Amino acid sequence: MILGWKKRYFAILKELNYSEKKDKESALILDSIIKKTDSNKKIRKLIQGNTVFVIGSGPSLSFAIPKLKKFKKSIKIAADSSLKPLIDNGIIPDIIVTDLDGNEDAIRKISKTKSIFVIHAHGDNIEKLQMVEKIKNCIGTTQTKPFSKIKNFGGFTDGDRGVFLASYFNAKKIILFGMDFGNQIGKFSNTKRSDRKIKLKKLEIGRELLIWLSTISKSELFTTSKPIEGFKKIPYKDLDNIIT
User: Fold this and answer.
1) Domains of the chain, earliest start first
2) How far is the first Cα of the chain from the last one, in angstroms, to the nearest whole number?
3) Would you say the C-alpha torsion 218, 152, 91, 80 has a positive or negative sign?
4) What is the mean pLDDT of residues 133-147?
5) Tell me, what's the pLDDT at 186?
6) Dihedral (Cα; 152, 190, 196, 201), 10-degree rounding
7) 19 pLDDT exceeds 80?
8) Cystine design at 2: which of 21, 44, 68, 154 (Cβ 3.0–4.6 Å)?
9) What band does 192 get if pLDDT is binned at 50, 70 and 90?
């Protein structure tokens, strides 16, 4: 577990009135479902020393997709809310970070590919964990203490967990796409109007966590999305120069 994560996790529990006990219960269930695989080694091989794209479902994703299509060989980590528009445009991520609340059809479709799922257990998704039985290439994660087959790479939302994952496995460079962390919620996020307030709060927590990560990560950090402290803002036209 990343040094300093525990303190931030307990702050999140307090702020959102979440239950550590339920998070642990969910992690135990996930551990009982997933099988021991070499997916962890595969993730390391994909990420370590490489430039990695981390893709969210913010408002700028619509503008990012045409650019992403040009970089077919680049390693891509996608938050599951971005999965459907990516698939619809012929973009298959190498890694999907999910707590299983995204488009279920897209998850089922991508589970038949070589993509690796990083599946997160928390107190609110216990009823969805049985979906994992049909996903072969996967590892489990938690926000609490890691154990057995369950890891903790840090992060809270699917998007920022993708960045923490890339940093944990020592990506040389991490470039954000569709990760806007502002007051607008992207059309691909499928957020109900009644959930807008809590969604914005989660995005703010994700932004704060990434700012913290930028102070400890060994990776070079960039964003094509809304500016975020600790990440160098770059225009799409400079991507070729950054990647090479």
Assistant:
1) 5-243 (3.90.1480)
2) 31
3) negative
4) 93
5) 55
6) 20
7) yes
8) 154
9) low
Tokens of 134: 């049909």
Two structure tokens written together for 35: 């099988």
Residue 199's pLDDT band (boundaries 50, 70, 90)? Answer: confident
Q: pTM (2 decimals)?
A: 0.93
Q: Give the phi and the psi of residue 112 in degrees, each rounded to 5.
A: -85, -5
DSSP secondary structure letters along the chain: --TTHHHHHHHHHHHHT--HHHHHHHHHHHHHHSPP-SHHHHHHHHHTTSEEEEE--STTHHHHHHHHTT-TTSEEEEEGGGHHHHHHTT---SEEEE-S-S-HHHHHHHTTSSPEEEEEE-TT-GGGGGGGGG--SEEEEESS--BTTEE----SSHHHHHHHHHHHTT-SEEEEES---SS---GGG---GGGHHHHHHHHHHHHHHHHHHHTT--SEEEESSS--TTSEE--GGGHHHHH-
**What length is written for the chain?**
244
